[in-house]
Write a structure and sequence with these properties.
By secondary structure, this protein is α/β, with parallel strands linked by helices. It is about 40% helix and about 15% strand. The protein has three domains: about 80 residues, Orthogonal Bundle (Arc Repressor Mutant, subunit A); about 220 residues, Rossmann fold (3-Layer(aba) Sandwich); about 80 residues, Helicase, Ruva Protein, domain 3 (Orthogonal Bundle). The protein has a five-stranded mixed sheet.
């Protein structure tokens, strides 16, 4: 099955009209009737308006389904209040519901058709985000980054596609990547609870991934969609090839979306790229087409392939040599490659000052100068963006153990360095207090 994505439409992002008939949902009547039967089976008895709420559909649709099930003798009226029927399954309906639950235990909100989902994703694409310099600087204001690097990051964001952050360990790549989530969180998008493909249910909305907005940008009608901030998903060394495809639960018998599908219209960070449980070339081969064509191929049980939009801003972050991780063909598809490396003495001072301010500690520039000399001269280490916070944290932990308030004395800094760094190489003096 190949479901071709439509071109970007003029769909409004502020309002999703609520379907008032089964036909307007874009779903088959049989699927909705089956869902209604399973929900009634789980709840015993429901008013029709409560059935509508459980299914996340308008009352006229639930009423239409009820009348159809009643004619087929699958449900019956048990009461009435305010002109609304209270209904329950008949014995025939309960038998049918049990049969349906053996095929799929999904009994939540009604899905969205995959075609409606594709149109919506295209309409709220990451490439349509408004990005300007002040916004990028605001998102990165808590970091000490050179202006030319900020400009590179902003240019990558405007593309709405991908970014490759590389450089030595401790240079702040992960922190920079995660800070981009501040930019994405400015926008609101619509995320469906689930979608339907060929009669199969794929759940997408995940409260652990999607930050729900209680008051959306405007009142909307279709409760099958959730108003959320653009998602921010991070995967690291735990990533496997299986996690990049649909996850079928053999017990519940419906699908969960992979990370990149949950991240649609948002940010996906592949942290520590090259250290995953799959080889880098496997991951790159898996995503070479999605990154290029913005379409992902997912596999249903039985081998059926479906096309789903890959509308994700992907950030790869690594401290490994990019040339050892990817060939030229893949690196070409990552248009923005940004190196974050060691920091200058001026940047080190500013980072140290900011950490002291955040932790409400006194800042002594003389101790910082001596610390930089120790790191470079005695330890033969370059100055890294992570050093100030890591070393000061060592001092805070030791002070907490001793039951004393932390103080940034030279003795405390030297003691923290002895714990933090490896022994100096032969021929270099030991760290002294």
């Amino acid at each position: 099955m190949r479901l071709h994505a439509t071109t970007q439409t003029d769909l409004g992002l502020a309002t999703i009209p609520a379907p008032q008939t089964v036909e307007e949902t874009g779903l088959g009547r049989t699927l909705l009737e089956q869902l209604a039967l399973k929900i009634l089976s789980a709840h015993g008895e429901l008013f029709v308006r409560d059935l509508a709420e459980q299914m996340c559909v308008a009352f006229p649709i639930a009423e239409e389904l009820f009348q159809r099930l009643r004619r087929d003798q699958l449900c019956e009226v048990t009461g009435m209040a305010g002109g609304v029927h209270r209904i329950a399954l008949t014995s025939q309906g309960r038998a049918r519901a049990l049969e349906l639950l053996s095929q799929s235990q999904y009994c939540g909100p009604a899905p969205v058709s995959v075609r409606d989902y594709i149109r919506r994703v295209r309409a709220q694409s990451t490439t349509a985000m408004t990005i300007h310099p002040a916004m990028v600087r605001k998102a990165l204001e808590h970091l000490v980054i050179a202006e030319d690097v900020i400009r590179q990051i902003g240019s990558a964001l405007v593309s709405g596609r991908s970014m490759f952050l590389y450089g030595s360990t401790g240079s702040g790549k992960t922190t920079v990547a995660e800070s981009l989530g501040r930019i994405f969180s400015h926008d609101q998008i619509w995320v469906p609870y689930c979608i339907e493909v060929g009669g199969q249910i794929i759940t997408i909305y995940d409260p652990l991934t999607h930050e729900r907005v209680q008051q959306g940008v405007a009142t909307y009608g279709d409760p099958r969609w959730v108003c959320c901030r653009r998602p921010h998903v991070l995967v690291g060394g735990e990533l496997t090839m299986e996690m990049l495809d649909l996850e079928f639960n053999p017990v519940s018998k419906f699908y969960s979306a992979p990370a990149q599908l949950k991240a649609n219209n948002g940010l996906l960070i592949v942290d520590d790229f090259g250290r995953q449980r799959i080889r880098p070339e496997e991951l790159l081969n898996r995503w070479v087409v999605p990154l290029d064509r913005r379409i992902d191929l997912l596999t249903l049980v039985g081998g059926t392939k479906i096309e789903i939009p890959f509308d994700v801003f992907v950030v790869f972050a690594t401290n490994l040599d990019p040339a050892s991780l990817a060939d030229a063909a893949f690196l070409r598809r990552l248009h923005m490659k940004i190196k974050l490396d060691t920091v200058t003495r001026e940047q080190f001072r500013e980072i140290f000052r900011q950490v002291c301010r955040d932790l409400e500690l006194d800042y002594d520039p003389r101790d910082v100068e001596q610390l930089m000399d120790l790191i470079v001269a005695q330890l033969s280490e370059p100055l890294r963006a992570c050093h100030p916070r890591d070393i000061i944290q060592q001092i805070c932990w030791t002070a907490r153990y001793d039951g004393k308030p932390p103080q940034l004395t030279w003795e405390a800094l030297a003691g923290a360095c002895r714990s933090y760094f490896l022994e100096p190489p032969p021929g270099h003096p030991a760290i002294s207090s």
